[in-house]
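Justification of computing resources. Each target in the renewal requires a structure prediction run like the one illustrated here; the chain below, 487 residues long, is used simply to show the kind of job we budget for.
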Amino acid sequence: MSRNPAGQRIGSGGVIHFPIKQPIDYAAVKSTAQPPLVALVTRVWFICMCLALMGYAVMGKGFAYIGLPPFFVGEFMMLSGLACLMICGPWWRFLKMPQMIALLALFAWGTCRTLPYIKSAGLDAVKDAIIWLYGIFTFAVAGVIVCQPKLLVEMVGWYRKYFVKVFLIATPFLWLTFQRFPDSLPSWPWADVTILFLKAGDLQVHLGGVLAFWASEVAGGTAIIWFIPMFINAALLGPVNRGGMVAFLSSIGTSLIFRPFNRWAWGFIGIAFFGLSLLFITGLEIKIPGTERPISFDQLVQNFISVGTSSGETGDLQGTKEWRLTLWNNILNDTLHGQYFWSGLGFGENIVSHYNMQIDPDEAVRDPHNGHISILARAGVPGIVLWAMVHFGWALGMIDGYVRSRHAGRTKWAGLFMWVLVYWLMVVINCSFDPYIEGPMGGVWLWSIYGVGIAAMWLRGKEPELFDQLDRAEEPEPDALAEMGAA
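Resulting structure tokens:
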């Protein structure tokens, strides 16, 4: 059997056979040569890493406290990831990339602003520095993928087959359970934290990640029925957290920029418009257990308006925003125009207590509920400049990878770059309203996404055919009946 110039299969009788679409085999992708034991160890670590990311997404802070103090699941995965780097192969080749040079510079400056406080602040200094120390996951994730490229393709398959389904189905039940019975859930014996501890903003980041995944071409086909759990999750979480709501909306907007006619973004917009219209016409309010913010038209409008203005703010919306803005203005004045321009307060100082704005009697609140402001406050202007270089450089790399892949006709590569860029954007937006990346629930995800992006940039040029087998798997097979007729 041969092919015509258009790539269609032609049988012996000259009949064109229209193929039948086959399921994608994400595992059927070649891998680079590694000793069998090394390949097994790194693969097992990567699988455990993906499971840990799922745990952070669906169980939140409760999952983060699995382990024995002070070493929990995040610390274990970090140290074991470093061990994998030592054996997986010549991973250091990608350190010459501009994004990694910027990250190394951030590490160096962060170390300089942390070490002086180790003696006085002890473990608190390390906890404050974790916002950049979690960048170790970038090296581990990128290094393991670069040395075993097959894992990049398998990761996409695992996300589609397992994460998407588990997250969309489990989240409404887990969220309502946590909201309805916050005092009845069991806590870990070694910490005053329940085994299930969820935040609406964190969940909305992953909800947007799923939507961006479907909108990208790396996902393949997805049944339209999955719109139902997607919309249920969005309706439950949208009124509760404005930062998460903005992050989720950004996933829709950015997806439309990359793919203006994708059905997932437009489908969600259509359903949301219908739902909001129904709420507006009926005046319906649905009370969510455990929160003062109901599902209603007015509440959603207040959440949206309150992001940029003080109009329409009431209750906890007004109070939390005023506290944040006052603290942020104090930090901006002292760093951009004051004595902390070069050095910042350092990683070890309790920022909230420093400005006499503590809202917790135990002084457990240490950061200003904005990851970018935290970096500025602790590392000064040099720190925030390096922080911007790290993230904007990476984002430009994702855009470049998308454009080059699209130009080369490699749609799955383009879809991968689009997906991870949108995911990163949502994390960056959410951490502007909440201490998201100062903990493992957001920090491990942020730097793992960064690592996947680094590996994708490296492998796109070195192994551009990595996703080709998936493209072939999506091509239709010869029609048996037509082939018989040609014979």
